[in-house]
Amino acid sequence: MYDADQNRTERKVGQKDIKITARDVQVYYGTNHAIKDVSVEIEDKTVTAFIGPSGCGKSTFLRCLNRMNDTIDICRVEGNIAIDGEDIYDRRVDPVQLRAKVGMVFQKPNPFPKSIYDNVAYGPKIHGLAKNKSELDDIVERALRRGAIWDEVKDRLQAPGTGLSGGQQQRLCIARAVATEPEVLLMDEPCSALDPIATGQVEELIDELKQNYSVVIVTHSMQQAARVSQKTAFFHLGNLVEYDDTEKIFTNPQDSRTESYITGRIG
Amino acid sequence: MTDLTTSSGGAASGQTGISSADLGLRRRHRKELRLKILGMAAILFAATMLFILLASIVSSGYKAFTQTHLELEIEVQEDLIPADNPARGDYQAMVEAALLDYYPDAADDERRAITSILSSGAALKLRDNVLSDPDLIGTQTTVNVPVSDNYDQLNKDLLDRDLPENRRRLDDSQIAYFDRLEDAGIVSAPINWTLVTAADSRFPELAGLKGALIGSFWALLVCFLISFPLGIGAAIYLEEFAKKNRTSDFIEVNINNLAAVPSVVFGLLALAVFLGWFGMPRSAPLVGGMTLALMTMPTIIISTRAALKAVPPSIREAALGVGASKHQVVFGHVLPLAMPGILTGTIIGLAQALGETAPLLLIGMNAFITSAPASPVDAATALPTQIYIWADSPERGFVSRTSAAIMVLLTFLVAMNALAIFLRSKFERRW
Ligand SMILES: Nc1ncnc2c1ncn2[C@@H]1O[C@H](COP(=O)(O)OP(=O)(O)OP(=O)(O)O)[C@@H](O)[C@H]1O
Ligand SMILES: [Mg+2]
Predict the structure, then answer these.
(1) How many domains does chain B have?
(2) pLDDT tens digits, residue range A28-67?
(3) Do residue B390 and residue B335 come from a single domain?
(4) What is the Cα–Cα distance from A231 to A240, expressed in whole angstroms?
(5) Predicted interface score ipTM higher than 0.90
(6) Chain B neighbors of A106, CB-CB under 8 A
């Protein structure tokens, strides 16, 4: 299976660039070995879905990609992760700079208890992306448009972000994440707190975002993975069991565990 | 179904069903009722004790909020006031003369007894009036002068006229002198502003809380300036930056212990370190504030850490996720959200410090000081130590003044706690 993987990636390189390369990544929480030997190559301008049963390490691996795990005292990451060929765990890399480049959207909508405008403007401000107020206004508007929420909030930019509905909040969070012009967008179950309509909006959004970004999304919904992603990675008990084109994973999985999971027998 | 409505005993006896009047259920209800009654009794007991306490303080203290005065027509005699130094005039003689006008037939020894009705503050009041308005010299002026403590007590019915004469502080003739003034209609009992505008004095009718209020203010200010930044700094470091390991656990346990150390120990520490080693001035609010800061700091650290902990992790993740540094997360997001909780804890800590007595006694803030402190390094008392001094004084007038001072202190404490509650409810956030 490993060889097949290799061949396929080599084939694909010609068409799509590799954005993130992970080699033999191990993650430990204290003595708990949460990610075992994961190697994966994530393509640019592609939506990659991480699926797998609860507790298998999807979030953990996702959080390795923007070094969010650094904030957990007991967490230890080994191996090599590179974005555009640059090792992100290198001592010279500033995780703060990295996170501006690798945006993240969380499972639960978590807007700052500030105005809608300030929510979006915060990232560009701290990274000095705007020279003056009107530039900042432009950035905020562009981000809110990309987050597909501009029309709903353009008349109340100074209203608190926490006063929006759950779906609006999540789109606001997406707008906040894209406002810093990241190259990679990580989304950890972004729709789990949303109703079907809001989910539909976010999924459309993801589809648009892949024009510019490499999007990695963790989801528990097989249908969602099938709908939005081009590549799918199946995790099980800390291992990356299978990684392939989404279509192939869902129609013709190579591993029996993948098959059991997508047909609903494990997880 | 059976399990829901019957106890095991009920089930064994074959009783089932929701409506069956079941023994176990009734027992459970009785237990609940008993608990409720016990709880209510406890609250009632606490409320009664509080009421008794407040009632006794108020009933003995309210009389100190007025002070008996005499309205005297005083002749300001030019020949008794040296022109080069009007402050050294014989004002006592002028006040006495005005008073003795009401006793034209009094003999010499009677005159001595009569003039003892006047407080020693009477002449001072006339002097102050004259000094602020020199035009009064050579004219007649009406001045409201305070009477001395025993007559103040008599006027407020705190002195029992029915006691046998030898067990009274005033004999029959003295009472008669005062009654004559009352008949003349010159006795009044206006609000006792002296209580807040004067510093301490040996004479109850001249004693006030100004020195103690200013002393407490300086001490609390120093306490706040030291404990607030240090406490918040320590809490932020421990909560946000320090690695969780044995050392941090050890520090945490010790901070909790520090909060429980009896205040007298801090007083001894301050006596040895601040006064002994560093040679700082005795009785100074600066030292008092530093001592109180030692006690307030653990309270602030603990409440700040609780407030920081209460900020949801999702906010930190959100800020980290857009590339904020640890420093920006803490100072830009977490701290502002925790501020109401921090302020509440700080105010409660300061309210505790305001009422703290033992450490201040040890550093000498219970000295007899008759002027208000001009700076934090001047000798002063504080509210609780002033109460302690007055409670210890033999003069009858200090009994009600002690209670009045307690009421002043309690007013400040209630106001501070109300502010804390107000802040908490105003800035409470829902995420
Ligand atoms: N902060 C943490 N501290 C300790 N252990 C953790 C922590 N976060 C995750 N783990 C452990 O790491 C393993 C993987 O967890 P992770 O959150 O990555 O799973 P997941 O695949 O995202 O699950 P879910 O689908 O339920 O979100 C689990 O065994 C979990 O107990
Ligand atoms: Mg997860």
Answers:
(1) 2
(2) 999 999 999 999 999 999 999 999 999 999 999 999 999 9
(3) yes
(4) 13
(5) no
(6) 314, 317-318, 321
